[in-house]
Amino acid sequence: MDFEDCIKFANETPVCYLATADGDQPRVRALGFWFADETGFYFQIGAMKEMYGQLQANPKVEACFWQPDEQTGTMMRVAGEIEFVDDPELKKKVLEDRPFLKEFGMTFDHPGLIIFKIAKGEAYFWTMQTNFEPKKMIKFGD
């Protein structure tokens, strides 16, 4: 497995679980995943969410992507530090990809439209068959 496998798996998984820290308390929630490419794993949130403050205070996160099957399925965990992305073209793209955001008054220049990515970190895949094997970490980013 390599980083291309991570990109493919993430893009085939519409919902992931993202863990942040709120002080010393972990917080995890399901998120509609946006996309992954060779530059990282991209997410979009609203600035009014508590998660935004958590990410500003501590950029370390872990995302879990899970694809079920007849038994336990396959899981990919991605850990790293997020980077906020302030790119008008990406903001226009998220509005095209997620038109429901316009119903909330979001525009590409709205300060509440937040994009972030995990650009550097490590990932690994888990299945029941590999449960007791050492993790095969896939490093990505600089």
Describe this structure in words.
It contains four helices and eight strands, in the order H-E-E-E-E-H-E-E-H-H-E-E. Helices cover 22% and strands 45% of the residues. Strands 1, 2, 3, 4, 5, 6, 7 and 8 form an eight-stranded antiparallel beta sheet that branches. It has one domain (3-140): Electron Transport, Fmn-binding Protein, Chain A (Pnp Oxidase, Chain A), CATH 2.30.110.10. The longest helix is centred in the middle third of the chain and has 10 residues, at 88-97. The protein has helices at 3-11, 50-57, 88-97, 100-103, and strands at residues 15-22, 25-32, 35-37, 40-46, 60-67, 74-85, 113-127, 138-140. Strand 5 and strand 6 (74-85) form a beta hairpin. The chain is globular, with a radius of gyration of 16 Å. The protein starts with a helix and ends with a strand. The mean pLDDT is 95. The protein has 142 residues and is an alpha+beta fold. This is Pyridoxamine 5'-phosphate oxidase-related FMN-binding protein. It comes from Methanobacterium paludis (strain DSM 25820 / JCM 18151 / SWAN1). It holds the Pfam family PNPOx_N. InterPro entries: Pyridox_Oxase_N, Split_barrel_FMN-bd, Stress-Dev_Protein. Residues 8-95 form the Pyridoxamine 5'-phosphate oxidase N-terminal domain.
Task: Give structural attributes.
Stress-Dev_Protein, alpha+beta, Split_barrel_FMN-bd, Pyridox_Oxase_N, 8-stranded antiparallel beta sheet, 142 residues, Pnp Oxidase, Chain A
Distance linking N and C termini: 19 Å
What is the CATH T-level topology? Pnp Oxidase, Chain A
The figure for the number of domains is: 1
Alpha-carbon Rg, integer:
16 Å
What portion of residues belong to β-strands? over 45%
